[in-house]
From TrEMBL:
Keywords: Cell membrane, Cytoplasm, Cytoskeleton, Disulfide bond, Glycoprotein, Membrane, Signal-anchor, Transmembrane, Transmembrane helix. It is found in: Cell membrane, Sarcolemma; Cytoplasm, Cytoskeleton. GO terms for biological process: cardiac muscle tissue development; heart contraction. GO terms for cellular component: cytoskeleton; sarcoglycan complex; sarcolemma. Its main location: membrane. The keyword Signal does not apply. Pfam families: Sarcoglycan_1 (PF04790). It comes from Dissostichus eleginoides. The keyword Cytoplasm applies. This is Delta-sarcoglycan. The lineage of its organism: Eukaryota, Metazoa, Chordata, Craniata, Vertebrata. It is a single-pass type II membrane protein. InterPro entries: Sarcoglycan, Sarcoglycan_gamma/delta/zeta. It comes from the Eukaryota.
Length: 184
């Protein structure tokens, strides 16, 4: 003897749609929480005006942009391991449209008025650094050092080292050389 139990859900089906799914002039309108068991493909997804759009997943939420050949062009993945973005260009702008940060294969641009490095060890650069101004936070010490190689500062119009409220100190293991090629 076998016992089969079936559960049926009755949806309200009408010419306007089925259950919480409504057919409108602009497309489909889904009211309330819904679960998608397969990927969702849509031209546009938006919430009601003034209401947040909430996406939830037990693994991750992925947004993929593909071309007509279904090749991945851009990808945005948020999950328990972090936030990842793939693409030719990544930009962060302020609400007024000012570029704050951008990155592509050639360069990374920080467009904010000031770049602050908060790490206790400062910033480490494997190649050269080009900037018109280097300064420490107010009442903090500025150190330029190269523990294993040489430290070279050069500029076509000169270098100015100024300590308005303290001393300037240069320390080296072997010899300290200040050289002027054309001047005194």
């Amino acid at each position: 003897m076998s016992l089969v139990s079936s559960v049926y859900t009755v949806q309200s089906v009408s010419q306007d749609g089925m259950g919480k799914l409504r057919i409108t002039e602009k497309g489909l309108k889904l009211e309330g929480a819904s679960e998608f068991l397969e990927p969702l493909y849509a031209k546009e997804i938006q919430s009601k005006p003034g209401r947040p759009l909430f996406l939830q997943s037990s693994r991750n939420v992925s947004v993929n942009i593909v071309n007509s050949k279904n090749q991945l062009l851009t990808q945005l993945v948020t999950g328990s391991s972090g936030f990842k973005a793939k693409g030719k260009l990544f930009e962060v702008k302020s609400t007024s449209g000012k570029l704050l940060f951008s990155a592509d294969e050639q360069e990374v641009v920080v467009g904010a008025e000031r770049l602050r490095v908060m790490g206790a060890e400062g910033a480490v650069f494997s190649k050269s650094v080009e900037t018109p101004h280097v300064r420490a936070e107010p009442f903090k010490e500025l150190r330029l050092e190269s523990p294993t190689r040489s430290l070279l500062m050069e500029a076509p119009k000169g270098i100015q080292i100024l300590a308005e409220a303290g001393d300037i100190q240069a320390i080296c293991r072997n010899e300290l050389r200040l050289e002027s090629k054309d001047g005194e």
